[in-house]
Specification:
- The protein is of the alpha+beta class and 288 residues long.
- The chain has helices spanning 4-39, 68-84, 145-148, 226-230, and strands at residues 100-107, 121-126, 131-136, 139-140, 156-163, 194-201, 215-220, 233-241, 250-253, 262-276, 282-287.
- 22% of the residues lie in helices and 27% in strands.
- Strands 1, 4, 5, 6, 8, 9, 10 and 11 form an 8-stranded mixed β-sheet that branches. It has a 3-stranded antiparallel β-sheet with strand order 2-3-7, with no helix packed on it.
- The longest helix has 36 residues, at 4-39.
Length: 288
């Protein structure tokens, strides 16, 4: 008869082996995990937030173009200094050199003319051709005593420019109509005393010289279109002050102490245009 006790003991011994092996494997795995965790380098600290560069300084905006009012004010100051013979203030110097300007000169204020005469800007009606012609004629100033007195006059080939009419007024509109009685002996209109002059030096380009070529614009007029013949226009002048000898924005001269000084700005024109005086519509322009 077999011994059941021995079989039970053998069965127990058979189960101990796998248990011991499983325990050993578990111990090895636990030791490996523990060692890995212990030897792993610490996590790096979080990166600092990126340093924000200070915003770049904005370039200063250029000053706005000089207006009619500012041009007249500076010229009045220079004229007064010239008349008073202020030794250090007879000329407006560096401050205005390089400044841009923009102004409008009204013309045709009394409607289109058949014979406009010697006006520097006018609106002329040709009844035969039924056309309206706008004209702006730069003046030639090479012979003016003011120009002849410049140190470098021998290097100047030509001087062309435009007068600024009525320099006692800041308005860029046509002067209002007046019904004052005309005196028995009318006085001649005041001669122009303030202008924008472009100097052309000997040896330089002649492409921009106008000479006998005025700025012109011609428009067809329908029969009965009275409104087109009665409207006014603007001569638009834009550019920058370059100065005489690149150091004096304008110069003044007078015949005597009893005469108001004549002052000229030395300029370069960038744009010359004709525009409708009522709605500002551009009718013609020349960019240089």
């Amino acid at each position: 008869m077999p011994d059941n006790r021995l079989r039970s003991r053998d069965r127990k011994l058979a189960l101990i082996g796998p248990i011991v092996i499983a325990a050993a494997v578990g111990a090895i795995i636990a030791f490996a995990v523990f060692s890995r965790d212990r030897e792993a380098p610490p996590a790096p600290p979080p990166a600092p937030p990126p340093v924000q560069a200070p915003p770049a300084a904005l370039a200063p905006l250029p000053p706005p173009p000089l207006s009619r009012t500012e041009l007249i004010a500076a010229a009045n100051e220079a004229a007064g200094a010239y008349a008073d013979r202020s030794s250090d203030k007879t000329q407006v110097k560096d401050a205005l050199i390089g400044r841009r300007f923009s102004l409008k000169i009204p013309f045709g204020c009394n409607g289109a003319q058949v014979s406009p005469g010697g006006a520097q800007a006018f609106a002329e009606y040709d009844a035969t051709k039924k056309t309206l012609r706008l004209v702006a004629r730069p003046a030639a100033w090479k012979t003016l005593p003011l120009v002849q007195g410049l140190a470098d006059v021998d290097q100047i080939e030509s001087v062309e420019g435009f007068w600024i009419p009525r320099p006692w007024s800041a308005s860029e509109a046509c002067p209002p109509r007046r019904d004052d009685a005309i005196p028995a002996t009318p006085t001649a209109p005041t001669a122009p005393t303030l202008g924008l002059a472009r100097l052309f030096m000997t040896g330089g380009t002649r492409a921009l010289q106008r000479g006998e070529r005025p700025y012109e614009f011609v428009q067809k007029i329908a029969d009965g279109d009275v409104a087109s013949l009665s409207r006014s226009f603007n001569l638009v002048l834009q550019g920058r002050l370059v100065g005489f000898d690149r150091s004096t924005a304008l110069r003044c001269w007078s015949e005597s102490t009893a005469h108001r000084p004549i002052c000229l700005y030395a300029v370069e024109f960038d744009r010359i245009a004709f525009e409708d005086g009522a709605d500002g519509k551009i009718l013609a322009e020349w960019r240089e």
